[in-house]
């Protein structure tokens, strides 16, 4: 029989990919609470989503090999912390998810050189949305504004960035989570609230972090990014009281239980509330 309740349909759906979901757990729960987690907690949390212990251990080993996690053993227990590089990466991703900056209005155009991350090839050089912190290639770089032909910009952008795939990700997220009305999420058990929040952020972040965040006049008129972020923000705020209580009751690091809330988690909630 098909599951009709949207909450249970999400929680009983196919397991997420282990390595991706572990990254989600660390980004959502662990990074703002000290960046360390007991392996037993990780195994238990993933089991709730149909991910086996063997898959968790394999995924953790790969994350260690990739330099994103660092392990330590205390007695018979293993703990894993985010590497310094991963902490920086997670904080940058967290800004996009929880406190996204305004969309850029201008473009950066490099007259020569190979594209860097965030840039795409353009003629003999590269082009990127101009934003604070953009890493500039060597050689001349111009800051440009649109002065004509704005109607042709969406077609140009679609030929240089994977906008169709990003839009599909956003729309899939909206279809999957759009039925979670306040009535549907009212009275959830704390463990279900956390499980649902982890699924929420695991799916939303794939689209949001792939979004090149182009100037608004370069995206299609039906671009779903703002609608998807509004849904993400609303659900994250609604689920977090119960989810954070569950974290405080059932997550542990090498010292003891993780705190229910920290200044970092409160800052996230404040940013989303704005």
UniProtKB/TrEMBL annotation:
**What is the protein's name according to its record?**
Transcriptional regulator, PaaX family
Q: Which residues form the Transcriptional repressor PaaX-like N-terminal domain?
A: 17-85
Q: Which GO terms describe its biological process?
A: DNA-templated transcription
Task: Please name the source species.
Answer: Paracoccus homiensis
**Record PANTHER family:** PHENYLACETIC ACID REGULATOR-RELATED TRANSCRIPTIONAL REPRESSOR (PTHR30319), TRANSCRIPTIONAL REPRESSOR PAAX (PTHR30319:SF1)
Spans annotated as Disordered: 255-274
Residue ranges of domain Transcriptional repressor PaaX-like C-terminal in the record? 161-246
Q: Which InterPro entries does this chain map to?
A: PaaX-like_N, PaaX_C, PaaX_trns_reg, WH-like_DNA-bd_sf
